[in-house]
Amino acid sequence: MGDQAEALLERVRAARAHRRPLCPRGTGGKSHLGRPVDGEVLDTLGHSGVVHYDPSELVVTARAGTRVSELIATLAEQGQMLPFEPPLFGGDASVGGMVASGLAGPRRPWAGSVRDFVLGTRVITGEGQHLRFGGEVMKNVAGYDLSRLMAGSFGCLGLITEVSFKVLPRPRASRSLQLRLTGEQARDNILGWRRRGLPLSAACHGGGLLRIRLEGNQGSVDAAVAEIGGEPLEDAHYWEKLRDQRLPFFDGAKPLWRLSLPPATPVLDLPGALLSDWGGAQRWLKSDADTDTLRQLAASAGGSATRFSGEEPEDAPFQPLPAPLLRYHQTLKARLDPDRIFNPGRLYADL
């Protein structure tokens, strides 16, 4: 455990010399996402530890193999948090996998995405170089955008070895409520509450119930509770279960689709069981419908559909990219990983 950057660098250089693809992996909790890759597993869990933490500056730097649970606990000791509420599939996740997947929890629409809080990274490229992009403060913008591109790259651009994050104080007060509403009623209420500046930090609708979380200072939370009404949410761990897909909705063998839609999208007539998260911007759908049907439905609303899980492998689990955007991705891949060492084809067959 500790700093194993040199050993990882040697593995990458050897793989490049032998034209052998690598599959970077931490805990493996997100290995089901994307297209299958025929490559040698590159385990990053040994490269771990919090490198630097300055609570007064709201900045923390950790190695890629650091467990997210460890990082969350370290921040909690100082009353701080990762604002994007990362999922811990399988009970835990690594910092590198958290960034590479770019997945965020229920707080994401109100707090921001993973990439919004990445200040800097260290990355081993496909050419066997260990480079640093960005820094530990917002003022240091050198390479800042490239660091953010690592979020959601699924390990296709290089091996993340270290990440610096901006963190935020934990809210002083938090209350969760539930209200019995239709999907359209839930959508209209959420839009209205957002316009009035109520301190929402989560909103999920399913089974005729809208569940919301309110966070902030005690006065604003109490005032919002009085205005909204409803009943207290009895399950104290509901948002963690939603974040980690441990709610009963996610059980079963049917394929799980993730629809990403504009926030004000009305209720859609979707073929399957639905759970609406992020105030309606993220909709989880369990359905046997074919890929083209679901993607056309999502596209008609200005969004996209990703196959998140299912028994049968999906050749194109991610929404296909427009040709100009695909060319941009190919150019970036060729610059950072010209020999296609890292997760070739995991996102798209041509990357």
From TrEMBL:
InterPro entries: FAD-bd_PCMH (IPR016166), FAD-bd_PCMH-like_sf (IPR036318), FAD-bd_PCMH_sub2 (IPR016169), FAD-linked_Oxase-like_C (IPR016164), Oxid_FAD_bind_N (IPR006094)
Domain FAD-binding PCMH-type: residue ranges: 1-170
Keywords (A to Z) from UniProt: FAD, Flavoprotein, Oxidoreductase
Source organism of this protein record: Alloalcanivorax marinus
Entry protein name: Glycolate oxidase subunit GlcE
Signal sequence coordinates: none
PANTHER family assigned: D-LACTATE DEHYDROGENASE (PTHR11748), GLYCOLATE OXIDASE SUBUNIT GLCE (PTHR11748:SF103)
PROSITE patterns xrefs: FAD_PCMH
Listed GO MF terms: FAD binding; glycolate dehydrogenase activity
EC number of the protein: 1.1.99.14
Domain of life according to the entry: Bacteria
